[in-house]
Amino acid sequence: MSTITLYVPRDAAAISMGADKVAEAIRREAASHDVDVRIVRNGSRGLLWLEPLVEVATPAGRIAYGPVTEGDVASLFAAGWLHGGDHALRQGNIEQHPWFANQQRLTFARVGLIDPIDTSNYAAHGGWKGLRRALGMAPAGVVQAITDSGLRGRGGAAFPTGIKWKTVLDTPAAQKYIVCNADEGDSGTFSDRMLMEGDPFSLIEGMAIAGIAVGATRGYIYLRSEYPHALRALEEAITAAYEAGWLGAGIGDSHRRFDLEVRRGAGAYICGEETSLLESLEGKRGQVRFKPPLPAIEGLFGQPTVINNVITLASVPFIVTEGAEAYRDYGMGRSRGTLPLQLAGNIKHGGLVERAFGLTLRELLYDYGGGSASGRPIRAVQVGGPLGAYMPESQFDTPIDYEAFAAVGAMLGHGGIVVFDDSVDLLEQARYAMEFCAIESCGKCTPCRIGSTRGVEVIDRIAARLDRDRQEALLRDLCETMLHGSLCALGGMTPYPVLSALNHFPEDFSPERRAPAAA
């Protein structure tokens, strides 16, 4: 009797919906039917409303069923799902699903397809080719390939990756470092987590290539403390990579060395800022450093350091394997390649979509997202985390492009999109932004530490209908001070959601919409 392979995601979203129980139920039911099954705990395909999404390997391809609960397993076996049988949960070949079929998966090409911690399975799907190629190139050639690809930092700042790498390469030092910022703290973002849980070797390979390119022999992944499943996947993958000769001394049968380890974050939003992250990584309180010097010159322990986020580094293997032009051919303007976009909030079909830059917000919200989960009109979307602008319906045709977003006073950031229907109160959302900044501030600079606290107070006075015009003028002036006077992007970007709410949704700040002032 041949073994039948099933894929049950080990992604945190699927686990939260009962994937572990589903996997165990499949084992029990298979044993009762005397069927030999092999269960691979893969990553998520990104259709989060269908999780747990179980795929069955059949002669006709992988057939998906979802969302599967523990109680569905018996009926699935009765329907002959191990041979692709019909069932109410049958989704067909997921790669032909309308959500999936039009995506352009470069960075996420293997996520959901492979066993995340099997080095040979990774290699069978194109893994390690980029690292092998980089080992045969001059370091400057690797850096030039990254520069020519047009890759920009996917963590939010969108700084050209090649420039950062070249600075580290050209800075002489006995020790250099590669640091991965995996402190994914923005609301509505989960692409880093999905990548680390579903294809951790792509991150490991990207960091090793970066080490070869700039002369660094040690790397650290600074992981968000709230990601236990990603921690497990990374630690298992790193151990496997050492055993297979892709980390440590003589990587890929070369004379090069690269060591890598995971460090858990301090649990503070500010540690997602690169210099605060370095302070935390050194065992200090996570506070922002003054710049200059830049981390590329004096970074971790005072040494030249490449700091990139997960998606940036995981994009590197494709670029080095296929060539800079292959990556640069995707996208528009100065935004090259693809971006994993994450749909969350009040959205019918939430999940991850990887597409080249250039599609519009409207396409994402309706062609992929299917509109709001509540069925009410979508009134606003916040893009780029808790410090991103609130974009009204009139801006939904803005293309996904760094410069196009900047032109309308918004930012693309990490690609997280949180959706709100017409029941949202934008004054409350503006207040939340100020309060968030007040709570998460490292306290080093006055505009952020004090300005955010005063901002909450001013918005509360507007809500209480106390001299609305004067309070709005004061709030705008305060935002201007924070925007230009803050030491880092936390205080400097808090004005984005506040001002966008004021500018695009002024009716929510009007006395007519607010409760009467207290007696």
What does this structure look like?
With 519 residues, this protein is of the alpha/beta class. It folds into four domains: 4-101, Glutaredoxin; 119-328, NADH-ubiquinone oxidoreductase 51kDa subunit (Rossmann fold); 331-421, Ubiquitin-like (UB roll) (Roll); 426-513, NADH-ubiquinone oxidoreductase 51kDa subunit, iron-sulphur binding domain (de novo design (two linked rop proteins)). The chain is built from 21 helices and 17 strands. It has helices at residues 12-16, 19-32, 73-78, 98-101, 119-124, 129-135, 139-149, 161-170, 191-198, 200-214, 228-243, 274-281, 310-322, 324-328, 361-368, 402-407, 426-440, 446-463, 468-485, 489-493, 495-504, and strands at residues 4-7, 37-40, 54-58, 61-65, 90-92, 177-182, 218-223, 248-249, 257-264, 305-309, 331-332, 335-336, 338-345, 351-356, 378-383, 390-392, 416-421. A five-stranded mixed β-sheet has the order 2-1-3-4-5, covered by helices on one side. A hairpin with a 7-residue loop joins strand 8 and strand 9. Helix 9 (191-198) crosses helix 10 and helix 17 (426-440) runs antiparallel to helix 21 (495-504). The longest helix is centred in the last third of the chain and has 18 residues, at 446-463. The relative contact order is 0.10. The mean pLDDT is 95.
- Radius of gyration in whole Å, from Cα? 24 Å
By CATH reckoning, the class of the largest domain would read: Alpha Beta
Q: In CATH, what is the homologous superfamily of the largest domain?
A: NADH-ubiquinone oxidoreductase 51kDa subunit
Q: How is the biggest beta sheet arranged?
A: 5 strands, mixed
The amount of helix comes to 40-55%
CATH topology of the largest domain: Rossmann fold
| Main sheet: strand order | 2-1-3-4-5
Strand segment count: 17
Distance between the termini: 80 Å
Which residues form runs of ≥5 with pLDDT under 50? none
- Name the beta content range: 15-25%
Task: Report the principal-axis shape.
Answer: globular
- Provide the domain count: 4
